[in-house]
Structure formats: structure tokens, C-alpha cells
Amino acid sequence: xxxxxxxxxxxxxxxxxxxxxxxxxxxxxxxxxxxxxxxxxxxxxxxxxxxxxxxxxxxxxxxxxxxx
Length: 68
Description:
Layout: E1 2-4, E2 11-12, H1 13-19, H2 26-34, E3 39-40, E4 43-44, E5 51-52, E6 57-60, E7 63-67
Parallel strand pairs: 1-7
Antiparallel strand pairs: 2-5, 3-4, 3-6, 6-7
């Protein structure tokens, strides 16, 4: 599990995937989210602009990232 510290109130899901190096590009993030491959707090999330707050967990390809 990886922890990502944000300096803002929230971060959008697609931006987090890029920031955490879980995807190589915004296009890949968009595609993987749309295909239902991303879990937010153990539930499939297809909303690219979903706002994530400290305590939220994002999982892609078995790698979990927690926002702190």
C-alpha cells in the first residue's frame, strides 16, 4: 500500500492515478476508469472526476493507494 499526501482539500481520480504513477497518461487513466478497472474504497468507480479526500483508498491492478 502506498500513501499519497495531498496539499489541497481533494484530488480528482484521474489526476491521482497519474500522480501516483499508476497510469502513464491521462488518456490511459480515462480508459481504465471507464472500463471499470479502478476501485475507490473497494467499489468500482467509473467517474473520472470523482473527488477523493484524505482517507480514501484507490486500487488499480492490485496496487492500493491511500490519500493522506
